[in-house]
Amino acid sequence: PSVHPIGRWVRRSSQSQCSASRGRLEGGATAQQYEKMAALSSEFGDLVQIKKQLISVISLCKERGLVHSVKWASELAFALKPLPMSELPPPAPLTEEDVEDLDALGLAKSYFDLKEYDRAAYFLRGCRSKKAYFLYMYSRYLSGEKKKDDETVDSLGPLEKGQVRNEALRELRVELSKKHRTGELDGFTLYLYGVVLRKLDLLKEAVDVFVEATHALPLHWGAWLELCNLITNIEMLKSLSLPDCWIRDFFLAHMYTELQMIKEALQKYQSLIEAGFSKSTYIISQIAVAYHNIRDIDQALSLFNELREQDPYRIENMDTFSNLLYVRSMKPELSYLAHNLVEIDKYRVETCCVIGNYYSLRSQHEKAALYFQRALKLNPRCLGAWTLMGHEYMEMKNTSAAIQAYRHAIEVNKRDYRAWYGLGQTYEILKMHFYCLYYYRRAHQLRPNDSRMLVALGECYEKLSQLSEAKKCYWRAYSVGDVERMALLKLAKLHEQLNESDEAAHCYIIYIQDIFSCGELLEHVEVSTALRYLGQYYFKNKRYDEASLCAQRCCDYNDAREEGKALLRQISQVRDQGEASSADVSLPCVFGSLSNNNTPVRRVSPLDLSSVTP
Questions:
Q1: Over 80: is that where the pLDDT of 263 sits?
Q2: Which intervals hold domain Cdc23 (predicted)?
Q3: Residue 60 near residue 93, CB atoms below 8 Å
Q4: Residue 152: is its pLDDT beyond 70?
Q5: Which of 106, 108, 182, 548 has the most beta carbons within 10 angstroms of its beta carbon?
């Protein structure tokens, strides 16, 4: 069986937006359903207060070594106007315990910054302050993570790396759970406790603890981000009791993007820009990612180029940028990006992924897979690298390795529709169609309005001889906006196979009208197939004028020219014999609405399946 080209959409997709623009955006949710969530926090009216809070939380996170939260808060603070000296927030007051632990904490933090985690933990053993306790526990956690990576990086490949656990996790859980029961954990240690629970696959407990952490310390972005990774659907999101704080709006926007509710995400980010964060590179990058997710390639490329102008040494999100360059086959631009990132930091995960994309575009799949493996050695939880490596193994016909890579991607993030789709594609190649159907269904559940998932489902149903379900899938794929212009063709051929000539003709007619309306007729080889069928269809129904038009159009295509000429001769012979065209007005005409270059007013529905989702 042929490989679906859309299986690689993380980097490949149809460049045509004409058909897709007629479909709905992903997500399926209306703004009214989430009106409460859509409203921005009233705190955005006081940007000075928000700036003060950001400055304060930056200091708190720096003291605890939470570098990613520091970076996120710093980028937001940089996007706001500077505060005069009189408005700067005072440093956090020290408790008696903080003063007692000051020297030990300073020494341990210096070791922590040098990644000597065991050494840092050793000098914090007897400290009593909450700040010192967090750094003590966090050092032990990071020490376990570092040892886990050191043990596996040379001895095992990246496919096995996820099987090794941090040996410190169980001890940390026991100690933190005791303090949690007595209410001794602050916002930072609650966050760490949640991370430990997540690493131990205690996901329900982890969600509860992360929600508690956001209430205890709403401005710590790390807790929100960890919570985001555990939310699987909109119902779960709506069920959570989250603090009413301005940072909640950033979380919801991020969450909408992750749940493929792109319309809602873009509305939320636009509201944040209007609230005063128009200069935020974080928001620009998130909007670019959102446009990437709905395949608006031009808009996404424009935003990434703008981002590169504002922040030329940025590496974050550049792997997504390279996906877009890959889709457009922009080899010079992708080569420049890869060389530029190598000069900045050749050992970053994103750099390895960009280089992998570059080699894949040049069809050097072994080299591409090697760079994705390097990315996974640097970060075994890099979702994109797992999925991309699965694609490369598919290109190399190594289905067992591809399955393993896709399964690892799903372990990292069960919301990754590309990995589910990749598994379906792999099992289709192996002709295991019931497995294939299961994985395509999972991909469709994550992207209910993605025509590519529906077309794949339809093909699978066809192979399982469930033709009525296949028809529903193809028509639904067309109704939501057919990205690759294949759904109607497949539906027409299915009707043709079942000798349902009227339905097949309707589908071919709509297909040709859509192609004409976008001005892309000559770019689509399958048009000749449709014209051949319609020519014969009209001829059999004695609609000789329409049959003649179709036959003349067939002469524009090399593969249909002879058949077109033969049909014209047949029509001429019939007319010479004095046989008139049928006056049956019930038969549709393919060129009637397009004779004056008019776009079809509405779609003709051969089947009442527009509301059916398999």
A1: yes
A2: 49-288
A3: no
A4: no
A5: 108
Phi, psi of 533 (to 5 degrees): -65, -45
Per-residue pLDDT, averaged over 135-141, amounts to 97
Tell me how many domains the chain contains. Answer: 3
The DSSP 8-state label assigned to residue 33 in this structure reads G
Instruction: State residue 527's pLDDT score.
Output: 86
Q: Which helix (H) or strand (E) holds 390?
A: helix 383-395
Pairwise CA distance, residues 403 & 384, whole Å = 15
Q: DSSP states of 534-557 as a string? A: HHHHHHHTT-HHHHHHHHHHHTTS
State both tokens at 370.
Answer: 């090697």
Q: How far apart are CA 289 and CA 281, in angstroms?
A: 12
- Give me the residue label for tokens 């205890």: 216
Rounded to two decimals, the pTM is 0.82
**Interior CA angle at 365 toward 484 and 351, to 5°?**
90
Residues 304, 332, single domain; the answer is no
Q: Which tokens hold the place of 489?
A: 């063709």
Q: How far is CA 539 from the centre of its chain?
A: 47
Q: Which residues contact 455 (CB under 8 A, 6 or more apart)?
A: 4, 6, 473, 474, 477, 482, 484, 486, 487, 490
Whether residue 88 is found in the same domain as residue 229: yes
Residue listed under structure tokens 């993605």: 450
Q: With a cut of 90, say whether residue 380 has pLDDT above it.
A: no
Asked if residue 306 and residue 363 are part of one domain, the reply reads: no
How far, in Å, CA of 544 to CA of 574, rounded? 9
Averaged over 469-473, what is the pLDDT? Answer: 94
**Residue 91 burial (C-beta neighbours within 10 Å; 0-12, 13-18, 19+):** exposed
pLDDT tens profile 354-375: 999 999 999 999 999 999 999 9
**Cβ contact 381:225 at 8 Å:** no
| CATH, residue 497 | 1.25.40
The pLDDT of residue 588 is 60
Each residue of 299-337: pLDDT tens digit? 999 999 999 999 999 999 999 999 999 999 999 999 999
